Amino acid sequence: MATEAPPPPQSGTEAAPGPVQPTTEAFVEVQESAEFGELRRTYRSFAFPLTIGFIAWYLLYVLLSNYAGGFMGTKLFGNINVALVLGLGQFLTTFLIAWLYSRHAAERLDPKAEAIKSRMEADA
Predict the structure, then answer these.
(1) How many Å apart are CA 59 and CA 74, to the nearest integer?
(2) Least enclosed by CB within 10 Å: which of 6, 21, 27, 52?
């Protein structure tokens, strides 16, 4: 699959100027700022504990499936056993974490990131 370069502007017309890009120094300055550090801390304080918790929950499920077959095969009601409930719980927690992250990002991350972006675009 070949990618094509955009066609050159037609004669007599000029391409609309794109947004001005901040300099490398501006990016480094923002990266070293306290505001960006706070944004990273806010992200990490949410993402790292949830990631560790989910991986632990997933590994527990895998270990129980491999080494506790009798427990996982315990029927809860009808043909529903512990393994099925915990397996469906994996899907449920995946969607729950995605929903929680989208709320967290919209409330705490996006406003801070937008403020940084707006300031960088204004300074460029």
Answers:
(1) 19
(2) 6
